[in-house]
Amino acid sequence: MSAFAIQPEALRDVVAAALGDQVRSITVKLGEVTVEVAASQYLDVMRKLRDTPGCQFEQLVDLCGVDYSAYKEVGVEGARFVVVSHLLSVSLNQRVRVRVSCADDDFPIVASVCELWSSANWFEREAFDLFGIVFEGHTDLRRILTDYGFIGHPFRKDFPLSGHVEMTYDTEQRRVVYQPVTIEPREITPRIIREENYGGLH
């Protein structure tokens, strides 16, 4: 770590002072600072993290979605969908992680941060495509990894491994066609094969 890099505890205090009561929680774990904010405060918080002296996070290096639906099986309550962003300050040599929960599990939506960092454009499109999270204010929110006719969002925990449709090339129609999946879902159990007289048994 370079001599001018801020310590995580010091960064936590700087961020806490800059954001005040807009922060739900701010923690330091494994040398990393994580800030949790409400969806209603998200855009304003991100702007402050970019512009406030002592923060100056000029770069959005990553943004992704998370589906926590399986956590209910182990007794953890909370929002199903979360957007996680990683910000970098090149000038101050520091990083922060921002987590925002989508208020509605059935229609997850948060503000777009494209107006603050242009790199958010494709990251938000990816989270929309794979998780179905809508970024309000995004000027071109459309799928980026799946095909035009794709149904559903493949990174959601309830999305079937085999998908909903499969595509094949139809030689008579001379085009790609979509049809329901023909693969039967099944439990995969390892088959144990032993040679004859294994272990001296007949």
Report what the structure shows.
The chain has 202 residues and is α/β, with parallel strands linked by helices. 17% of the residues lie in helices and 28% in strands. It contains three helices and nine strands. The strands form three sheets. Strands 1-2-5-4-3 form a five-stranded mixed β-sheet. A two-stranded parallel ribbon has the order 6-7. The chain has a two-stranded antiparallel ribbon with strand order 8-9. The model has no long low-confidence stretch (mean pLDDT 89).
Short description:
This protein has 3 helices and 9 strands, in the order αββαββββαβββ. With 202 residues, it is of the alpha/beta class. The protein has a 5-stranded mixed sheet with strand order 1-2-5-4-3. Strands 6-7 form a two-stranded parallel sheet.
Number of strands: 9
Largest sheet: 5 strands, mixed
Summing up helix and strand content along with how strands pair, one would put the structural category as alpha/beta
Average pLDDT metric: 89
Shape: extended
What Rg, in angstroms, do the CA atoms define?
23 Å
Number of helices: 3
Determine the fraction of residues in helical runs and give it as a percent range: 10-25%
* Order of helix and strand elements from N to C terminus: HEEHEEEEHEEE
Main-sheet strand order equals: 1-2-5-4-3
